[in-house]
Design brief:
With about 250 residues, the protein is of the alpha/beta class. The protein has eight helices and six strands; from the N terminus they run E-E-E-H-E-E-E-H-H-H-H-H-H-H. The N and C termini lie far apart (about 55 Å).
């Protein structure tokens, strides 16, 4: 389908990292048939990520109507999520599509206006000489744009991807912009490392103390390991504890 209109939903740059709270960049595209496509790239697999996708898709669908407009004015919504992690570990599919269906017979809902589409970059293993479709070339670009110096001819032949490579080329960035990107990347890697270490430390602590209190205590132990590294909201998303529970842990520690 051809894109008719494009909008950056959240163009705000993060305040020099500081928690990276506003680092995700959403794009909303409108196709020529009126379908709205919400596009987001996600680096970290955080708690409630799946629920957030459903919420944003439903909100986009519902907020189309202005006062007095009928339901017939609603246009379909596609929520496209490109993840740098495996969202569905029990599936080897690179691209997964979800729609409303009857639970037992798979009968499709007549007005299937909300669709969820996931592209899991770690599952893309094709080499340059294996790229066949336009989707292959775009996914290759998204996965490897930052690591290759020469644009493969099979990709460079697509004008839009050629232009995208030019935009992504860091040679065009100022030293301050490049440093800011590197700080963001370091923050993300630190987050990943902090979460992994916290889980291991909490498990070791529980084993040494012979704790039998259950899942809630395990979450609290992980959260305590993260207090010096992450903000309350990210700790809440990571552990499943409420914001108030995380704040209480921080307050009691102090």
């Amino acid at each position: 389908m051809t894109i008719e209109d494009l909008e950056i939903i959240n163009p705000n740059l993060p305040p020099r990292v500081d928690g990276l709270k506003d680092s995700s960049l959403d794009v909303k595209a409108q196709l020529v048939d009126g379908t709205l496509v919400i596009i987001e790239m996600q680096v970290l697999n955080v708690e409630s990520f799946g629920q957030r996708i459903l919420y944003n898709a439903a909100k986009t669908y519902a907020f189309q109507l202005q006062k007095g407009e009928g339901y017939r004015m609603l246009k379909p919504v596609i929520a496209l999520r490109i993840t740098d992690f495996e969202m569905f570990k029990n599936s080897d599919k690179l691209i997964s599509r979800f729609v409303y269906k009857e639970e037992n017979t798979n009968l499709q809902y007549p007005d299937n206006d909300i669709k969820l589409v996931f592209v899991e970059l770690p599952k893309f293993t094709k080499q340059v000489d294996q790229l066949e479709t336009l989707a292959d070339k775009w996914i290759y670009f998204m996965k490897y744009a930052r690591t290759i110096t020469d644009v493969p001819p099979v990709i460079d032949s697509v004008p839009e991807i050629h232009k995208a490579f030019g935009i992504a080329n860091q040679v065009n960035l100022s030293p301050d912009e490049l440093a800011n990107i590197e700080r963001q990347e370091m923050f993300i890697y630190d987050q990943q490392g902090a979460i992994i270490k916290a889980v291991k430390d909490a498990a070791q602590e529980a084993k040494q103390e012979g704790r039998q209190e259950g899942r809630q205590e395990e979450k609290q132990a992980i959260a305590r390991q993260l207090l010096d590294r992450l903000d309350d909201e990210i700790i809440s998303q990571t552990t499943g504890l409420s914001i108030e529970e995380v704040r209480n842990l921080r307050s009691n520690r102090n």
